[in-house]
Design goal:
By secondary structure, the protein is an alpha/beta fold. It has a single domain, classed as 3-Layer(aba) Sandwich (Rossmann fold). The protein has 9 helices and 7 strands, in the order βαβαβαβαβαβααβαα. The chain has a 7-stranded parallel β-sheet with strand order 4-3-2-1-5-6-7, sandwiched between helices. It catalyses: AMP + H2O = D-ribose 5-phosphate + adenine.
Length: 197
């Protein structure tokens, strides 16, 4: 794993544990020579993790839509910043540049990004690891809800298991490195997927 896409909030959130987890993840990534790919912002947890990776001499690539750059939330200190036309292009480029995905605490934008790559994995569009960094139990409710979705037979257990989770950044990163794709029946094949995304 040479690059990791991190989805996270444009706020630092209510608990200092969230920013602490962002800095710890940044330190681990730099220590293991894993580049950061993220949404290109200078605010919230996005700014925290990007600043920490750069402070430690790591590699950072930001991807941000022009509309958000115009609102002055783009990080102008990044060595690599792709300015794209819209959110769809942003997410596609971030996925293309990354070998895996981590969702840190965040709002509906973070959840939307997470569930898109989770859905892509379910459909067989990619076989990259996906992790939830459950800092301070932030994602406890979501993990429980996904168990409920499985129990109600809207998601198979083996599909749900693709979404890795841990409260500890080192443990989550290790789970992602150990991840091996499971082969279960896909709705579409790779040739079809390549035309869709």
């Amino acid at each position: 794993m040479k690059s990791l896409c991190v989805y996270c909030g444009s706020s630092v959130g209510a608990s200092p544990a969230y920013a602490d987890a962002a800095r710890e993840l940044a330190q681990l990534m730099v220590g293991q020579d894993i580049a950061l790919v993220y949404g290109g912002g200078n605010v919230g947890l996005m700014g925290v993790i990007a600043d920490e990776v750069m402070r430690l001499g790591g590699h950072v690539t930001g991807v941000i839509p022009q509309a958000l750059m115009d609102k002055e939330v783009g990080h102008r200190g990044l060595p690599r910043l792709h300015i794209v036309k819209d959110m769809h292009e942003r997410k596609a480029l971030m996925a293309e540049l990354s070998d895996g995905f981590v969702a840190m605490p965040g709002g509906i934008g973070t959840l939307e990004e997470l569930f898109e790559v989770f859905t892509w994995a379910q459909l067989g569009f990619h076989e990259k690891p996906i992790g939830l960094l459950n800092a301070a139990g932030f994602y406890d409710g979501l993990i429980a809800f996904l168990d409920h979705v499985v129990a109600q037979r809207f998601l198979r257990r083996e599909q749900a298991s693709v979404l890795l989770h841990d409260a500890s950044p080192p443990a989550l990163l290790q789970k992602m490195k150990d991840f091996r794709p499971q082969y279960f029946e896909k709705i579409v094949d790779r040739a079809t997927a390549a035309k869709i995304i």
